[in-house]
Amino acid sequence: MPGNLMSTLFFSSSKTLSSVSSFTSSYTHTPPSPIHTFSKSMMEEKIENAEPIITRWNLNSSSYTKAISVFSHNRKEAKELLKSVKDLRQAMHFLISEISPSDKLVLAQTLMQIAMKRLEHEFYLILSKQRDQLDPESVSGQSSDESRNFDDEEEAPDDEDELKRARETITEVETLSQLAMFDLKAIADCMISSGYGKECIKIYKLIRKSIVDEGLYQLGIEQFKASRIQKLNWEALEHMMKNWLTAVKIAVKTLFSGEKALCDHVFSASDSIRESCFCHITEEGAINLFRFPEIIAKSKKSQERIFRQMELHEALTDLWPEIESIFNSDSTSAIKLQALSSQQKLGDSIRTILSDFESRIQKDSSKTPPIGGGIHPLTQSAMSFICSLGDYSGVLSDIVAEYPPGNSTTTESCIGSLTSNHDSASPASVHLAWLILVLLCKLDSKAEPHRKDVALSYLFLANNLNFIIEKVRTSNLKNLLGDDWMSMHTKKLKQYALNYETVAWTKVFSSLPEKSSSAMSPEEAKECFRRFNAAFEEAYMKQTSWIVPDGKLRDELKVSIAKKLVPAYREFFDAHVMMLYGERHLEVLVRFGPDDLGNYLSDLFHGTPILVSSSSSSSCSSSPRCILH
Predict the structure, then answer these.
(1) Is the domain 511-628 a CATH 3.40.190.10 member?
(2) Cβ distance 174 to 145 under 8 Å?
């Protein structure tokens, strides 16, 4: 390559020139043709023309020259300087190929070294002094069309025209940013093609890496160490995760994206150089940034941490297309691999927490059932967690997509009616429905201690299923599980309620004759009243200590019982109470009037036992005299 040739020339100039002189002095050659002589004269003239421009900006010529930037001071002269270097390089290539060396070659080599030192200095000044114009946010905001405004070095207009054209479409900050980018590219192209790429690249890497590292530091990204993070309490760790979630979006969308755009622009002439530079500048910071979620994934597993972990996973998933695009070279593959590894480790951790949650439900060993058939603590805690999972259905579907819950046969049979079309159910919907099913199965076993009183078992199941349905109905789970799920479990709830009612009140219902008959004797009527009193009192006393926390379900149960009990009792009461008029202690024999039953039923399911006494339970409505009036 020409660059390698020139690099060899510049760093071994005296040796090269003495060899050329020795070679020409000992070799008799044919005089050059007129055309060749003319070309040589033109090349020597290029060197002569370049001399005043290059020497004017010699860093050693004056302190003033060293203090200012030619690109900031006079853009026209900056372009002349770049053109002079180009002409100088062309002339040197020609003269080196000559059999007969020219005295101008030594001058050209000296001028080239002066020019390269100047451009190296200019490159440094632009990178260090114009950091605001080259900040990643300004650079990442440049469109490809805007970037092309100043890309053509040959056709780049004068400074005033350049700025005027740019300001017609973009802001002043963007204009200055583009000019700085253009100047860096022009200098880089010039130095690399002249064999001084190493010096140019070294400066660029040093300054730009410090900017990226500083940017990450300002975003609150420190050097993450697993040993330290694992010792943090949850509050400190959660704060760190929240900060990371904010920082990673800015880092990817602005910091790394802007650095990629700048690097690609400045070193557009060489794929290998821009890839090497970008990798050196970003690799350390990016790998540290993307390693954080993996450290979190390897730390303590707990339900409270799963939601932050899903947020970390979601952030990496959302940013993955940009991560792939920014770090798209072989040299930056380690960065992509780290981001991918963190995403996978988070998925593993989240699935482990879900599996542990399911296992804890199945292994819950609490023996004491809630008093009065109320809501089990397991139901409350499990549904709180499952409802929260429903708020993360998108990322949850990604995580559990290839890991169906339970076994395929059980899943299909138990969740087959999840939606009208089970095949269209999201992985999150299926998984959450499965977790609720596991909970319902466990609750069924929790009802076992109530089996001595089957009615209480059914009330317990009704209470807990109703609680689950209400949690689903009032959360995002309703949309995930669908109407079919709601309909199926509502029917099951009604069946539990009916089973409770049948078992709890059968004795009361059966104490009344199937059809009241006026042919019943007074003794038969008295016995029937006695049986009803005993059965109703027993049911009433027992069920006042039972509880139905949900007001709507409580009212529905009372209304259902009253609709069946009160009319049947009223019919019997109206048909037989008069034949007992005049009986001693009638108020003890006929303890409940039809209208009293509703009042007694209103006492049920509040979890407050009430003792019934003959004195307190008697009322005007139970007196035949009152009834007659």
Answers:
(1) no
(2) no
